[in-house]
Here is the input.
Amino acid sequence: MQNNGNGGVRVFDLKEPANPEEVAVFANNDIPETWQEKVIVKSISTPEFKGDLAVVSVQQLNKNNPDSKGGFLLYDVTKPENPKKLGFWELTKKTRGTHELYLTTQGNRAIVVAANPYADYYSDGEEKDFQIVDVTDPTNPETLWQFEPRTLPEVNGYHWNSPDGKTRPLFNHSTMVDETGKYAYVSMWDLGTVIFDISNPEEPEYLGRTDFASDQQGSAHSSTRAKGGAILIETREVYDPVKDGYENAYGYTRIFDIKDKSNPKLLSEFKTDLTYDIPEEDNVTFAKTVHDPKVHGNILYLSHYAGGVIAVDITNPSKPTEIAQYNPEQSDVWGVFVDRNYILASHR
Here is the structure.
C-alpha cells in the first residue's frame, strides 16, 4: 500500500513487481482538506474484528474549514480491492491531527499509538502529543492514555531548557511498537526517542530516552529496532544545517544499545557524503537529510531523500558500513519498505 498525500491511500497488487497494478484507493474523500501521512496495515483477531485492519493518519490542511478534522481512520482491507471504512478516531479541531501512528496487538486486543505534533500546545492541554487508543472494536476506538512530557523532571515546557543549557523544541513526530507489543518508541524531537513499557496500555511506564551531544540538533524523527530488540536505530531529520551553537550538518542516523532501556548507550553514528555538503547560501533543504529506517536481518535500509535508498550492514552495530545505494533520477526518496526479496521506495 502506498500513502499519497492529499489523495488517500493507493493499493497495488505486487504479484508481478515489475508491473504493479493499482486496485483501489481509499481514505481519499472522507474528510475535506486533509492529507494522509501514514498508513499501517496488520492482520488482527479480536472479539469484534478478524481480518486485515488499516489505520490511516489524518491531518488538517485548513483548520478554518468547518468540515475538516484530524485523527485517524480505520478501514477493513481484508479484501484489498474493496476497502471498507469502519471508524474514525477524532482529535479536537484545535490540533492539526495525527501525523504518524502504529498499530499493534496484545493478545486479542488491538492498540494504536498516535503521534499528534503539538496537540498539547494547540489544545491548551486538552489533548496530548502521544496517545494510546484501543481499536479492538475498530468501529468504536477508545482513548486509553495520554502522555504529558512535562511530568518528566527535566522537562519544563514544549520549548524546554535541556541540561546542556540550550532551549530545545519538544513534540511527538512518530511512534513505533516492537514485535511483542510491549515497548513503544516515541520520537519526541529534541527530547530524543522516548521508551515506554505499554504492556498495560492504561498505565504505561516511562523507561528512558536517548539524548544528544550539546552541539547536536536533536530532531529525533523515526526509529526502528534490530538484533531482536537489543538495538535501536534513530534517524534525525535535520533540514536546517547551520544554527548557532550546533555542528554544521544535515540529519544522520544514530545506533544505540538498548538492552537496558532505562539507559540507551550510543554505539555509532552513520553519516553520508551529503551530511556535510552544505552550500553557503540556500542551505535549508530536506534533500540531504536522512528520513526513515527499516531493518531486514542485519541490513539497515534508509530512505535518504536526494541520497535515495541506502543499504547499511549493521552486523556490527558499532561499525555500520554502507554496502549499496539506489538513487533514482529526479526523485527524492521519502519512504522505504522491504517485501520478500524486494525493496519498495516511495518519493515525495
